[in-house]
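Tokenised fold entry reproduced for everyone:
>
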Amino acid sequence: MGPFDSAWLAASVIAATPLIFAATGELFSERAGVLNVGIEGMVLMGAFWGFWGDWYFGDIWAGIACGLVAGMVLASIMAVLSIQARADQIVVGVGLNILALGVTTFSFREIFGSREEIVLSRMDPIEIPLLSDLPGIGEALFDNTPITYLAFLVVPLAAFVLYRTKWGLSIRAVGEVPAAADTAGVSVAAKRWQAILVTGALAGVAGASLSVVRLGLFQENMSAGRGFLALAAVIFGRWRPLGVLGACLVFGAADALQLRLQAEEYIPSEVWFVAWAGVLALTMWVVWRRWRGGSTSGSRRTSLPHSDSSSPPGRSRSGSPSPTSRFPRNCGSHSRSW
């Protein structure tokens, strides 16, 4: 089978785990009408502070909790600037990514710079009886860490919340027709705050799962574009939980494949690294094209779409499409399809 064996499948699931957390969180933001580009920084903050929490408290779950809180702290800054101050969402997101890189790099060097490299014990896998004995896929799918199982449970939970609860309906309403939601008595700003905080929490868990669960160590800028991949997964999954899950599994499989092929001696490992970087660049180009295609040349602003309640839904005072129109109509659809 070459590189496509049970070991590759197991590596694909492990690589997809942080993407699933981050992409599911991003799904809530985009459903609420907020393009959270700062998710890359939230993943990085979760990775560092999750590692710090595990080292300081001596408990993996405490580290994951610290990562969750760190992601929510950065998400709250995103919410203040993009919702309360109505700043440009793209500019705010990029700024937060730079801030997260600076904070984590500085903190890591200040706290751990004078110490020898610290490698923490990783989370032990839990084997599911009977299912782990299935040939080919048993060990790959049913002999994983609890955080991996939790990642796959988060997806149907997110689908249930978005499509079967009043809160989920409100989230989708403020992303699709914010003026109508406001007329119905729904606080658009409050719902977007809640959605962004959910994004930050799940992105923080994604980062902590990368540093604490998967590697047991922290490296500067170790998120390595996974937040952007999560952003792309939401778009490729067409803003639906199961589609997002499928996109994350594809990205995880590609990541595991390029790592596997680097071990092949007849082709330099740099070739596969460049190929993976090319895939990432192509993905971001497609994301940018889809985002840009939803707006007109005269509407590039990505501030709070509900900034003018006197304008018709989806329109600004000038008559040009509001930033909400960058998201496809089915992004906020009231359809129950998962």
